[in-house]
Model the fold of this input.
Amino acid sequence: MNDLAQFVDARRRLGFYLRALWDDGRDLRGFPATPRQDRPFVTPLGIHLPDTVRVARGEAGDALYRAAVAHAAAHLAFSAAPQPRAGLKPVQIALVGLLEDARVELLAIRELPGLRRLWSRFHEAQAGGVVTFEALAARLARTLLDPAHHDDDPWVAKGRRLFTDASVDLADASFVRPLASLLGNDIGQMRLPFNVKTYVVEPAYRDDNSVLWQPDPDTPDEALMLEEEVLVVRPEIVEVDGGEILEDPGAPETEGVKPVGGGEPDHDDATADAEAWLRLFRYPEWDHLIGALRPQWCTVQERRADLGDPTRIDDILHRHRDLLQRIDALIRGSELRKPVRLRRQMDGDHFDLDAVVNAMLDLRSGRTPDPRLHVRVDRRERDLSVLVLLDLSESTNDIVRACGQSVNALACEATVLLSSAMERIGDRFAIDGFCSNGRGEVRYLRFKEFGEGFDEVAKARLAGMTGQLSTRMGAALRHATRRLRAEACDKRLILVITDGEPSDIDVHDPKYLHADTRKAVEEATRAGVYTYCMSLDPKADAYVSRIFGARNYTVMDRIDRLPEKLPGLYLRLTR
Amino acid sequence: MSHMHEPARAPAVIDQYRITQEPYYRAVGDEVALYEAAYAARLPMMLKGPTGCGKTRFIEYMAWKLGRPLVTLACNEDMTASDLVGRWLLDAEGTRWQDGPLTLAARYGGICYLDEVVEARQDTAVVIHPLTDSRRCLPLEKKNELVEAHPDFQLVISYNPGYQSILKDLKQSTKQRFGALDFHYPEHDIETEIVAHESGVDAAVAAKLVSIGEKTRNLKGHGLDEGVSTRMLIHAGHLIARGIEPVAACRVTLVRPITDDPDMRDALDAVVTTFF
Done:
């Protein structure tokens, strides 16, 4: 009897497993399994696993996936760079794969002995039975992995003898090809047919070994076109004339930017949609190549956000009322209240005069005094202003498959829950968002102001949130820093929620905006503003710690859990 | 107005803080020599590093080696300045001054070790300032006394920079008074030696435990706040040495304490079975 195991159920566990054992943060992706293609495969995008697998009843579905991940990781750790197939017959290619599988598994077992048990349970080929190439290959595979298994077929025995020969150094793959040729010739002499169309690697946890070979120029690389976890629903790529202005500071501004008089922020009322804009600001940008700030390089267009339907926000609050109650309990539990004078304490900074007098009276009259004589001031002041800065770029429209909502909608939901938590604590907060269209048009939307309550207007603005354009984070951070500095308070925090790295249409060197954003973070820190980044990009580790600092970021491994995680993170951050 | 006032009680009070048995400490680098030089110069020291990597054991060992009493105080966020310097207490005769641990060490000459000092409120941390610069004194405001630090006195703090809370960090003005030693989990062979010595398991089992620990540390920041510490590995070794089956011992001492997340738990259980 068989059961089906689902990849989506196991994915997170497998990610931890891969990261723990191999320190490998590679993406794990599901693909729709078909009878023709149900073996895992490895591409530069990550390790691809079938989205369902059959497992024996009572067997944990994870085991097969885990075996597949471990096997793929062993290839990535121990297999050489892809080789050309030239000069090899199909049967030899299949045998190179088989021997290479055994080689990398044995190398991995040297380091992680428990893997032998994990893999062995899937090798079920028995000695005897009909002699076909497929059967012999499966028997050889089992014999190579499991030293206790006995198989007296001459071809299998020969393969094992040559493979385990003392002169063979497993760490050096060069013996695999000659040995495969030799065994392949034997198959030819035994007149066993080999059908390349129907041959599949056995057992099922082993990948198709395409990772070993250079791609065939004739066949398109199907793997790279496979659907991934986040469905891309981008309608079109936004192209703007004159995007290449980075090279030439004197070039005309990007289309769509209205001329600004003077460098200082000033009101621009000469433009057509002036009422939509609050103000224009110019900010410098750091160019890591010249090691200097380019003055007045980016134009931030500040505007109030468009209004949407506030009932959407109330819906969110209603839908998450259980969660809100939990957050409420969390807030109560974390004692974030105002300072209190605690009288009659066992210890404290001062004596409680009344209690001391009473105690002396008690002593003199021969009674036992109450030892609670102190006053303690519990100072739990929170003089904190928080600016939540949302990335509103085009990519936030992508649908997260796990919950069917867009990244943008999830970020909005999370912000709503966070806002209600902050309101409950009494922290002053503002909600802003940004997107960009070249350096001349960094749009900065204000959803909620510091002084305002989280009322219908703020809710309506949040409900109108949409994603478009790109992510020029540095300029937005500089503007957010400026906004926050105007707040009179003790601690200031910018909480950036983003789904990707900084990028923009007029920048082709990814390091450029990384460096600029890091600079903006440094400037903020110098100005007494903390920055913290909540990244929804599972590959963010590569850059986000360099931008925000080792302690100042979190990478969300499941975007769909952002709404429940964000308020908790906030409480922990500001505890 | 000086430490001359209470000479009679002095030795007894401070002597209970002397370390008589040599604590086991396996040096991993030049930290012992560096610390000895720092102590000779009475330079205040900061021990940085993740939890359970041997900071406290190191300071115990150094106090033993230098023959100085060690006054340890674990800091917490409810700690007030009084908890450090002392307070007035009542007894039958009236009020009586009780030295706090910091005052004790400063008055009678000892190493005062403030564990996880970030946990203390920032205003608490500043009372150590006069002791950590050329003044080397501790004003007891409430007692109207200025305690001059004993020549043997040294202040040591521990500090785990991995804390997530942005509102909790040492002030620059505090940090810059200290020399700092960085502690990490020791490398494989040394950690194996430590786990084997401390828990009593043989080297092969200890090496497997250490490998498990190293694998979990890959997950720091990817679902775990911290990886499995040396201390936890020693706990696992203790159970194994008492005859508990290794997989169960690891489950109890390594996996269950470190995470509540069921997915993470399963992944870590799988890591354990990769070695046992």
Notes: Residues 385 and 428 of chain A are 5 Å apart (CA to CA). Chain A has three domains: 2-225, 310-333+382-573, 340-378. Chain A touches chain B through 46 residues (CB under 8 Å).
